[in-house]
Automatic annotation (TrEMBL):
Entry-linked SUPFAM superfamilies: PLP-dependent transferases (SSF53383)
Protein name: PLP-dependent aminotransferase MppQ
InterPro entries: Aminotransferase_I/II_large, PyrdxlP-dep_Trfase, PyrdxlP-dep_Trfase_major, PyrdxlP-dep_Trfase_small
Pfam families reported in the protein's UniProt record: Aminotran_1_2 (PF00155)
Ranges for domain Aminotransferase class I/classII large: 42-370
Keyword Transferase tagged: yes
Keywords, ordered alphabetically: Aminotransferase, Transferase
Highest taxon, organism lineage: Bacteria
GO molecular function: 2-aminoadipate transaminase activity; pyridoxal phosphate binding
Amino acid sequence: MVQEILSTDVCDLGPGYLHACLLPEQEIQHAFSVALSRYGPAALTYGHNWGALPYRSALARRLTQTTGVRHYPENLVLTPGTSQALDTLISKVARPGDTVLVESPTYDLALKIFRHRGLRIHAVERDPHGLVPSALEDAIETIRAKGGTPAFCYLIPTFHNPTGALTPPDRRTEILTIARRHTLLLVEDDAYADLYLDGVPPPPSLAALSGFRDVVQLGTFSKSVAPGLRLGWLAASTEFCEGLAARGVAISGGSSNPIPSLALTEMLRSGSYEHHLTTLRIQLAEHRDILVDTLRKALPEDFIVRRPGGGFFTWVTLPGDFREREAVAAARNAGVIVAPGSRFGAATPEIRLAFSAHSPDDIHKAARSLGSAWQKRK
C-alpha cells in the first residue's frame, strides 16, 4: 500500500483520492486487455514524444464534445498527471527567483512544487467566486513596479482545491482579459472538471475560452478514474506542445505510461469512461451530502459548512473564537484527521474535508465525531 496505513479507529479526511469502492477496477482490467490485444507489441515499446496518437485523438474528440471548442491532437501532450505536468511546465517558462501568482488559498502541493523550483510566491486574493480580477491586476502592477514580471499565474477555476468553489463565466472572461492585457500566462489546473455533482457541467475552461492563447491547461484521470494510472494531459498551443515534446527526456524515452494511455483510450472509445463518470458523480454526491448535512445538523450556525458543486472537498470556516490548531487537535482526539486551511495559505481559520476517500458509513461516523468534538470548543 502506498498510502499510510492508519488505525481503524482513525478516519483521515485530509487527502483527496478515490476510495476503493469508487475505482472502476473491472473496466480498467478490460481496457488493458483490449489495448494489448489491439496494439500488440507496439504497446510495449517507447511511446511517442507527445503521447500515443490514439490517446490524444480520443481525448481531443472528448474535449471538443464537452467544451464545444475544437481540440486537436496537436494541442495535447500526455503527462503523468497535473503535478508532474506543472513541474515540467515550470522548467520551460520559469527560472529560480521568478515570481508566480497564486490564488489565496490554493492547492498545497502546487505551493511545494513552486518552492522546490525556487520560485517566489505572490498570493492573490480570491472571493467565493474565484480569483478577484482587480487583485490580479494590482499584483501584476506591484511586481512590475519593482522591475519584475510574473512568470505565470496558477489557478483552479473549476471546483477549486481547497474551497470547492466554481468561477462563473463572466469572472473567467475578466481574468482572461487582464492576462491578455499584461501578456500573462495562465496555468489552469482543471483536475476536477469532470466531477460535477449536481447535474450541471461547469462553464468552459479558460483554455477553451482563449483558444489556447495565453493559457496552458492541466488535466488528469487520477481524480476521475484511478491515480495509479499516472495519466493526464497538458493542453496548449501547438508551439508550446512542440517545445515540451522536444525536451531531451521525451526524445530519449518517449512519453510516459504508453500502455495505460492506450487502455484509457479504449475506455474513451467504448463509452465505459462516460458510464463510469455517471455512476461516480452519483456516488460522490452521496458522500458529499452525508458529510455536509451531518456537519450542518451537528454544528452551531457560526460554523460555515459549504456544499461544493463538484470535486472532492468541503471547506469549513471556523467561528472567530475557535483557533485552527485547536480545531485540528480536537478532531484528532475524536479520531478524525483534517487538513488545516493554513496548509493552503488561508489567512483565516478554515478546514478542508475530503469526502472522496472513505465509505459513506465512515464519512457519517467521522462527521458525527467532528460535530461532537467541535461543539465542545472552549
